[in-house]
Amino acid sequence: MPAHPNVLSERPGPMDGQTDVISDVLETMRFTTLIFGRFELGAPWAIRVPKKETSSFYVLPRGSMRLRVEGVEQPLLLSAGDIVLVPHGSAHVLDDGSRRTLPARDVISSEQLRGHLSAPLRFGGDGPVSTLVSGCFRFSAGVHSPLLSAFPPVIHIPAHDLRATPWLAATVQLITAESSAPGQGSAIILGRLADVLLVQALRMGTAATGSKGAGLRALADPSIGAALGLMHGRLKEPWTVEGLAAAVGMSRSGFAARFHELVGEPPLQYLAGWRMTKAAQWLLETNDSIPQVADRVGYESAAAFNKAFKRWHGTGPGGYRRAQQPPPSGRASTPDGG
Questions:
Q1: 251 DSSP 8-state letter
Q2: Among residues 193, 189, 183, which one has the least CA distance to residue 59?
Q3: Does the chain have fewer CB atoms within 10 Å around its N or its C terminus?
Q4: Does the global pTM surpass 0.85?
Q5: What is d(CA 317, CA 167) in angstroms, rounded to the nearest whole number?
């Protein structure tokens, strides 16, 4: 059984008493950050990134570049100070913005950008230089959140928006400074700064008027955002559509339609999925018994919880917990099963 204390899955709530939905989602999805490095790119240059399971991010301290994301009709033109995230791992190409087509042998692969924190690397030609800091976010396998999956294929935060939010601009400045002269511990420092960058970018996108993408709009909407806060903050409550609608001052039909539009699925379907996601987290991170986990996510019957968990995760809670445990110390498996 996991040896982790319960406190690992608990955190202080916001000062105003409202549940911090973004923190709850990101904490549960246990995201990790990988910084690829800082690159000096002389025109002409191009980087091709294939579709992958991770979410890419780029900070452009100086220069300019063009980003073309698979499935997005118009390319994005970025200038110094811009931030861009590719949340769903879509295939994309970055280049200097010129019309020149580079030979395939001159296109930089994503593999060439990995693991270079010791010093900035130089790629490309002899033209104007752009500086790029790149990395990715990885979320735990099998963990799903409609709020994140509904984000648009690309999130672009221009430099002029950074000036309106000095805390985000400060994070960019720290990433730029640390990546320009890396030393002992730089991987940890840059990783933590990138974590902050992700949360701040999501916060900014959520607060922006006219946010695009269902996930961002759901959190920005006063009524639906409040309903999500209630679901996340009072998970074991026996919520109904009527009860949630009344709690946020809407009619049942109006609430159900608005929630589905902004979140991408009906309210109780979202609630059931999030309960199973939190149950999986608590099975791994706490020593709670299966009936205790069932109670924490609103099931009075352990049998009903077991059935719902198996339907969602493909295995029962006990089997899920055992499958995720590390092998006992000193008992490594061998090819013949010994």
A1: -
A2: 193
A3: C
A4: no
A5: 42
